[in-house]
Amino acid sequence: MTIQWADGHQSAYDFELLRWNCPCAECAGEMGIPGKLATTSELSDEQIDLDQIEAVGLFGVRPYWKDGHSTGIYGLSFLRAICPCDECAAVRAAR
Ligand SMILES: [Zn+2]
Ligand SMILES: [Zn+2]
Fold first, then answer.
1. CA of 31 relative to ligand 1 center, distance in Å
2. What is the pLDDT of residues 20-75, one digit of tens each?
3. Closest-lying ligand to the alpha carbon of 8?
4. In CATH, what is the architecture of 2-94?
5. Ligand 1 centroid vs 23 CA: distance in angstroms?
6. What are the boundaries of each domain within the chain?
């Protein structure tokens, strides 16, 4: 999945990266309770394959994974924050 940002920056995400960063309460946890991904070391093919992806207003995108999971809504600011390109990784490492 590729996003072209208004400032000209481009981010390319592979599906596995997106799934590992699923922001839903089940995967990422909430209110101090660790989510499923905290105790997962490997994802299945179905978990990292997309059925479809839906735009959620101006706010973000919602992927429908092949394993039936679809509760994670990825906000655009969140997506920008996890941009895997070298430039953004360097910025994150410097923080
Ligand atoms: Zn999730
Ligand atoms: Zn980037």
1. 15
2. 999 999 999 999 999 999 999 999 999 999 999 999 988 899 999 999 999 999 99
3. 2
4. 2-Layer Sandwich (3.30)
5. 6
6. 2-94
